[in-house]
């Protein structure tokens, strides 16, 4: 089932269940998806953005909310932080499961071997290989420092 279909089905289910917080977040996701589709449209017949682009959009939404949570906590606004964390939980329910530390290290080792990387100068090649194979399940922000350490940087 595509993410677009899941958004619609989950929105209907949340509306039936009377879960107003989930309904609100799902509506926000679908609105953002429409905006993303419109921005990416080249012709009126375009089907919209790909699943990978939807996942990237969801990751950006979750990251933005995580930053807001930190700011709300600094300002002692716990009720707003809790609302943002609830939104993050809904958004993350649509994201693929991330690789754990061991799996990430194995993927980095494989990418280093595949690219023949020998020094920190080859970091870009390794990151490109990781992104090509594991973009959906690998947190590139965590992978960067691990690749750097692996290459002796």
Task: Describe what this molecule looks like in 3D.
One of its GO terms (molecular function) is carbon-nitrogen ligase activity, with glutamine as amido-N-donor. It comes from Neoroseomonas eburnea. Pfam families: YqeY. InterPro entries: Asn/Gln_tRNA_amidoTrase-B-like, GatB_Yqey_C_2, YqeY/Aim41, YqeY/Aim41_N. This protein has 2 domains: 3-92, Orthogonal Bundle (Hypothetical Protein Yqey, Chain: A, domain1); 101-150, Orthogonal Bundle (Arc Repressor Mutant, subunit A), CATH 1.10.10. The protein has 7 helices and no strands. Helices cover 74% and strands 0% of the residues. The chain has 153 residues and is an all-alpha fold.
Helix-strand category: mainly alpha
Low-confidence stretches: none
Which CATH top level class of the largest domain fits? Answer: Mainly Alpha
First-to-last CA distance: 42 Å
CATH superfamily of the largest domain: Uncharacterised protein YqeY/AIM41, N-terminal domain
